[in-house]
Amino acid sequence: MYKKNSSKRTAIMVLKDFLVILPVSAIIGFAVGTPVTIYLKDPLLTGIVRSVLTALVIGFFATLAFAWLFRTIRKTPLVAFAAEFIIIAAGSYIGASINGINSLFTYLFIIFFAELFGIGFGLYMYKKTVRLNSLLKHKQQKLF
Predict the structure, then answer these.
(1) Which of 3, 7, 99, 128 has the fewest CB atoms within 10 Å, i.e. the most exposed one?
(2) Are 111 and 129 contacting, i.e. CB atoms less than 8 angstroms apart?
(3) How many other CB atoms sit within 10 Å of the CB of residue 7?
(4) Rg of the Cα trace of the chain?
(5) How far is CA 121 from the centre of its chain?
(6) What is the pLDDT along the chain (144 residues), one digit of tens a residue?
(7) What is the distance between the alpha carbons of residues 48 and 15, in angstroms, rounded to a whole number?
(8) Crossing angle, helix 104-143 and helix 2-40, to 10 degrees?
C-alpha cells in the first residue's frame, strides 16, 4: 500500500514538472532555434517550429530521466544531471541532423546553448525543490 501511494505521489510530481518544464523547453527551442534559422537563411516560421518541437521532445525525455533517476531509484543529483546533460546533447545533435543541419559550428552552437539553458533551468528547478522541501521539513518538525 505504501509503495502504491509513493508511486502515485511521484507521478503527480513528475506531471507538475512537465507543466513547468515543457513551456520552458519551448522557449529554449525558440531561443536556440531562431538565431540558427536566421544564420542558415531558412524560412523563419518553419525553422522555429521545428526547433520548438525538437526542444519539447528533448525537455520531455530529460525531465523523465531526471525524475526517474533522482526520485524513483534515488540516484544522486550528479547522476541525474549527467543523464540530463547526455540527453540534451544527443537530442540536440539528432534534432539538428534530422532538420538538415550539417555544419560542425552550428552543431556546437546548438548544443552549447541548449545545454546552457537546459541544465541552467534544471539546476534552478532542483535548487527550488530542495529549498521548498527543506522549508516543509522544518515546518513539520515545528509541528511535532
Answers:
(1) 3
(2) no
(3) 11
(4) 18
(5) 8
(6) 334 456 777 778 778 878 888 999 999 999 999 999 999 999 999 999 999 999 999 999 998 898 888 877 877 889 999 999 999 999 999 999 998 899 999 999 999 999 999 999 989 988 988 898 888 888 888 877
(7) 26
(8) 150
Check: CB of residue 77 under 8 Å from CB of residue 126: yes
What's the CA gap between 134 and 25, in Å, rounded? 27
Which of these, 74, 69, 48, 49, lies nearest to 122 by C-alpha position? 69
C-alpha cell at 62: 530529460
Domain spans in the chain, listed from the N-terminal domain onward: 2-143
Amino acid at 127: K
Q: Please state the pTM of the whole predicted model.
A: 0.83
Distance CA 11, CA 125 (A): 17
